[in-house]
């Protein structure tokens, strides 16, 4: 194995907060980054789910439109799949 250096830039506060967590786990930044890189290789991709938790403007608008339609047309909602399936079979 031949070692090489990896230089990255990050926000100082992000680095400090991450170091505290890694130290509490008994590791340093180098070990944590190596774990991430090796897991990335093993998983053949980013080893965690990347998601957007907050809907964008288009999605928010669609959600609001759906709510308005449901209220205006007095659409019945369902709280479980069984009731929905029964209603769809009618």
From TrEMBL:
GO biological process: DNA-templated transcription; regulation of DNA-templated transcription; single-species biofilm formation
Keywords per UniProt: Toxin-antitoxin system
Pfam families: RelB
Matches recorded under InterPro entries: Arc_rbn_hlx_hlx, DinJ, RelB/DinJ
Molecular function terms, GO-annotated: cis-regulatory region sequence-specific DNA binding; toxic substance binding
Family of the protein in this entry: Belongs to the RelB/DinJ antitoxin family.
Name of the protein described by the UniProt record: Damage-inducible protein J
Provenance organism: Megasphaera cerevisiae DSM 20462
